[in-house]
Amino acid sequence: MPAPTNVLKDRLQRGEVTTGLWMGFADPYLAELTARAGFDWVVVDNEHSPNDVKSTAGQLQAIAQTSTQAVVRPIVGETWLIKQLLDIGAQTFVMPMVETVEQAAELVAATRYPPEGVRGVGAALARASHFNAIPDYLTTANDQVCNIMQIECAKAVDNIEAIAAVDGVDGLFIGPADLSADIGYLGRPFEPEPMAYIDAAITRILATGKFAGILTATKHHAEHYIALGATFVGVGTDITCYGKAVRELASQFNAASNTEASSDNGPY
Question: What is the rounded CA–CA span in Å between residue 182 and residue 155?
Fold first, then answer.
């Protein structure tokens, strides 16, 4: 019996458009609720939320009860951390702040057992192997990992083609907030200049034959990027959705409740 099939990876490689939600509440109960909403995937975000390996494991267990696919963004792209995330069952990664070919190659190696990579062999302790109940896990796990490299600065944009050419890189994901900030538009990702810059980057990603992803703030922007060819499209965050809903509800009963309305930057 092989490692569990990465359904999301299969869909993305077939060119299917998928949409999902970023999750920052760091709570399994809310993760299951979100995963049951009907998204293709949800991201357990470690970079900008109070997650650790244990809380991420709990959310992966909760999401596994649904048909929604789980994605994990590590707090940082380090081999020792990726090893732990793999063992708790993560198969699809959004790797943050990837700037160079060398960095991308190291991250891919971190997700592969030898001789293709450097992942430590400890499947008997791992949820990923169903605690050693999957007899062929070690020989089949590599193929089921999906590596998405996050492009978040001008240096990374310059290296798009080279990063995409690294064996084991499945897709590239634009981080609009950081990328816009890096080119001089901090907090202004929807101005014409950064949007044109991001559009051009997505076009270049697609020209490499790899799939492109992005996180958006509105239905309008999501539809724009899907029309451009992006197939891994984040359409919001759980915290933003919850915050908007509770503020709107409170405002129906308390005129003073909207004093801390969110900015126009959506999930950024």
Answer: 9
Alpha carbons 15 and 8: distance in angstroms, whole number: 11
**Contact 137/113 with Cβ under 8 angstroms?**
no
- Annotated active-site residue in 48, 220, 221, 224: 48
Confidence of residue 254 (pLDDT cuts 50, 70, 90): confident
Domain chopping of the chain, boundaries? 7-260
- CATH code reported for the domain at 7-260: 3.20.20.60
Asked whether residue 208 carries a pLDDT value surpassing 90, the answer given is yes
Look at residue 264 in the predicted model and tell me its pLDDT.
Answer: 54
Identify whether 48 is a catalytic site residue. yes
- In degrees and rounded to multiples of 5, residue 94 shows phi and psi of -105, 105
Strands (E), 57-182: 69-73, 92-95, 146-151, 171-174
Contact criterion met (CB below 8 Å) for 151 and 172: yes
